[in-house]
Amino acid sequence: MLxxxxxxxxxxxPQKAEMIQKDLNVFTVGDLLWQLPFRYIDKTKFTRxxxxxxxxxxxxxxxxxxxxxxxxxGAKKRAVARIRDESGFVDLVxxxxxxxxxxxxxxxxxxxxxxxxxxxxxxxxxxxxxMELANEENQQNALTFAPIYASTEKLNNRGLDVKARRKLIxxxxxxxxxxxxxxxxxxxxxxxLKLIDRYQAIVKIHFPKSEEELEQAxxxxxxxxxxxxxMRLLMLKKLRKSSIKGHTFSIVGEKFNEFYKNKLPxxxxxxxxxxxxxxxxxLGAGVQMNRLxxxxxxxxxxxxxxxxxxxxxxxxxxxxxxxPTEILARQHYEGLSAFGELIGVKIEFLSGSIKGKKxxxxxxxxxxxxxxxxxxxxxxxxxPVQFKNLGLAIIDExxxxxxxxxxxxxxxxxxxxxxxxxxxxxxxxxxxxxxxYGDLDVSVIDELPPGRKPITTLHWTExxxxxxxxxxxxxxxxxxxxxxxxxxxxxxEKMDLLDLMQGYENIQRDFPMPDYQVSIVHGKLKNxxxxxxxxxxxxxxxxxxxxxxxxxxxxxxxxxxxxxxxxSERFGLSQLHQLRGRxxxxxxxxxxxxxxxxxxxxxxxxxxKTMVRTTNGFExxxxxxxxxxxxxxxxxxxxxxxxxxxxxxxKDGIILQTAxxxxxxxxxxxxxLSAPNHLSLxxxxxxxxxxxxxxxxxx
Length: 699
Ligand code: ADP
Ligand code: MG
Known about the structure:
Layout: H1 14-24, H2 29-33, E1 39-42, E2 59-71, E3 78-85, E4 88-94, H3 98-104, E5 110-115, E6 118-120, E7 123-127, E8 130-133, H4 136-142, E9 145-148, H5 153-157, H6 162-175, H7 187-193, H8 198-206, H9 211-243, H10 254-263, H11 270-283, E10 290-295, H12 301-314, E11 318-322, H13 326-342, E12 347-350, H14 356-368, E13 373-376, E14 390-396, H15 403-410, E15 419-424, H16 430-436, E16 441-445, E17 456-461, H17 465-477, E18 481-485, H18 493-510, E19 518-521, H19 527-538, E20 544-547, E21 560-565, H20 573-580, E22 591-596, H21 602-613, H22 617-628, H23 653-669, H24 679-689
Parallel strand pairs: 4-7, 10-15, 10-16, 11-13, 11-14, 12-13, 14-15, 17-22, 18-20, 18-21, 19-20, 21-22
Antiparallel strand pairs: 1-9, 2-3, 2-5, 3-4, 5-8, 6-7
Bound molecules: adenosine-5'-diphosphate and magnesium ion (MG).
């Protein structure tokens, strides 16, 4: 029955069916059933009329209908009825459907009335209430939580309002059998977690009779949803490990050792060592590596990447490293090619701006094996870029790349795909990581290199502008460099650019040449100009850089110790955190100053407070998740994994952890799900496979 088209339901003609398909993406009866309510109206108790007060939201009351009167005429014509219980009375008012009411309402009969009371003149009245006779049956049905579904204006107005929708669901339930909603959670889990069965859950989630029923149904369905995701991710991971072979990097050789022992300008932190060890183990295992390295800004991911690439070279392979922006890619190139020269490793740079002969030469040297490491932007994955033997591909700040782009990397190497190392400085809340990266191996660099002074973060408003100017001057006098960042958001691009240019002019006026040099960098500049401005700052030739978020990712200027963020309330938390990470890279005390307007929404206030309170990226990520919800966290937008039906990753961390633990337990014990108590789970997972193609690998 659940596979039947929606038009099968009584009251749904072809026209309505089409509207439902279009607006709700619902095609079958089952689709409709599985569109769950997103909230409920509590109709579980009758309210005494005398208890209605100003704070009362909607109420359910029961009383005797006294009189029905028609008052006024023309536009003001209305029907007024008075209803009374043992404690008092309210008036019911209608401006529409008056004739029908007059004919059908029974004076003297008992009614159940639902609506939102308003105080009018001397007593409460309820405009356009829902009402029905208080007979036995209606009374039973009235006392529930009434479900509210996501809908559209059009559907509401054209015959599928919430009441009609409820009726359709009730119609489905009339015919629905227990066997239509078979259980698939293994019995041992059902009893361990005291879950209600699947059929009960779907009935109760639509029409819970009590808070308790609602809670039971919700918990069961959330668990089910998260459990299925975890089963799939973990099975995918197992499958990948058993079926996708990889190049085996069996030795750690000359280049690695020479660099590590004699050239590395510092010693690695324990966290870096640990992660490098994890990577080395992967690389030698004969299975394709798919590892995510999470590490806060400044935790030293680049050097870990470089050392990993050297292992590749020592085993006769090439490596590449892809970064999301030209600036960042260049900076990686400049830093690493200096290292490369020390040990005779040839590193080249490729981006869209490398053209003509130069590009042709690079492509040639790449395929001949002349080049050991190629660093660049997404230009690396274009089809003409062919390697002799790519063994390892590193992706910095992967969330900037689409799934398809990443997929292209896979085809750059034969007979096995290259090992993939994905690096991100955007700490992801645990619940999100478990979902988004549940099929990857994850390493965390949870330690900063020694000797860094914590960054001092301040939140200032407009009336501290003069103080800001004085502060900038003091810091420059000490020889420091300053970033000033403006938001630039696509929707308000023009205004934002004006803002930026205005800010730039003000700064130039306050800090005039020749004593001061100010550079400016934004996305609208040509690459050459951008590079020129950037280079002036990197080389210490100018003290202030005014910029948009193009400097957000990865830029490294140790002498820059002040980050000023204008209109900081307009940035997301993770962006603010990223920006702040641009300073605090040298030995000096660093500052991040968040400028904002005086008036702030409570969310913005919490955002800025969080920044002032902590520099821990993971803590910040948790707050970000709470404030913005999973769909808006950077890096998650492309993932179908987060279109959850009922679970909420910001709130259901415990259920998620339980689901993952139990999924791991099951797969450890019965990897092929062939035990009798796992057969229905196996069936279910196979069945939903065909609907779930949005799931794709991370790299
Ligand atoms: P991120 O993780 O943000 O990419 P980087 O790799 O850019 O960080 O490293 C930030 C800075 O810290 C660089 O200047 C780098 O040379 C330095 N660095 C990295 N590891 C160490 C270490 N173990 N000790 C001292 N400095 C380090
Ligand atoms: Mg980096």
